[in-house]
Amino acid sequence: MTDLLSEVLEAHGGLQRWNRFTAVTATIVSDGELFAGKGLPQDLQPRRMTVALHEEHASVSPFGAPGQHTDFTAGRIAIERADGTVVAERLDPRKAFTGHTRETPWDPLDRAYFNGYALWTYLTTPFFAVMKGMGVEEADPWDESPTERWRHLRVTFPDDIASHSTAQDFYFGDDGLLRRHDYHVDIAGGFAAAQYVHDIEEADGIKFPTRRRAYLRRPDGRPDHDHVMVGIDLSDVHYA
Asked: Would you say 64 and 87 are in contact if contact means Cβ atoms under 8 Å apart?
């Protein structure tokens, strides 16, 4: 474990406290250009997200219709009814994105898969970095402005964890708290994103951002503020 990772984990609540919990639930509201471009514009209805903390498993409800929810793991995505009836299912869902570009339309299972891995990543940051198979190294700092320099962790995800891309970059302020998360969206043509996080809150001793805005990332690493690809607001967060 790098010194920076140790500082970051402690700043977000500490690994000992994190390990007391097995799941987190949160109310989410999301939108952005990505979904509209995929032919699935996102409404602003609040939904309830549940994420496992020590394995990659997530669910959001409602999804598609009242009484339906998603069931996501890296190897399967499904839409199910409350009684467990499967409405739609796809095994090895990553393969379905082969050849996709940023403009390729998505079906509801594509959207559910993206939601599952993305929210799992966000709601377990930075603690997922200590999971088996994760590669973590401190990289060059990022100068956000002439007066603000952020420290930088590069995380390499193993093949059995689904996420945006294999290599992802996380930037932290002097307080050790997350400021920005960079990645490529491999399932949408690999476009570069810079996600800024805001409004840090605390629940059950764990600190997390409640507002996320992912912008197209320009070749110089700066965000293109004219294009908000994904926006996510979190509230009513509880660890169990």
From this structure: yes
8 Å CB contact between 57 and 38: no
C-alpha R_g of the chain: 17
Q: What is the pLDDT of residues 56-107, one digit of tens each?
A: 999 999 999 999 999 999 999 999 999 999 999 999 999 999 999 999 999 9
Report the distance separating Cα 105 and Cα 46, nearest Å: 24
Residue pLDDT, tens place only, 164-186:
999 999 999 999 999 999 999 99
For Cα atoms 204, 207, 208, give the angle at the middle one, nearest 5 degrees.
Answer: 120
Q: What pLDDT, on the 0 to 100 scale, is given for residue 43?
A: 85
For tokens 């390499």, what's the residue? 156
Overall domain count for the chain: 1
Sequence-separated (6 or more) residues with CB below 8 Å from residue 207? 11, 12, 13, 177, 200, 201
Percent of the chain surpassing pLDDT 70: 100
pLDDT per position as a tens digit, 19-68: 999 999 999 999 999 999 999 988 889 999 999 999 999 999 999 999 99
* Residue 240, in any domain of the structure: no
Domain that includes residue 63, residue range: 3-235
What's the CATH number where 82 sits? 2.50.20
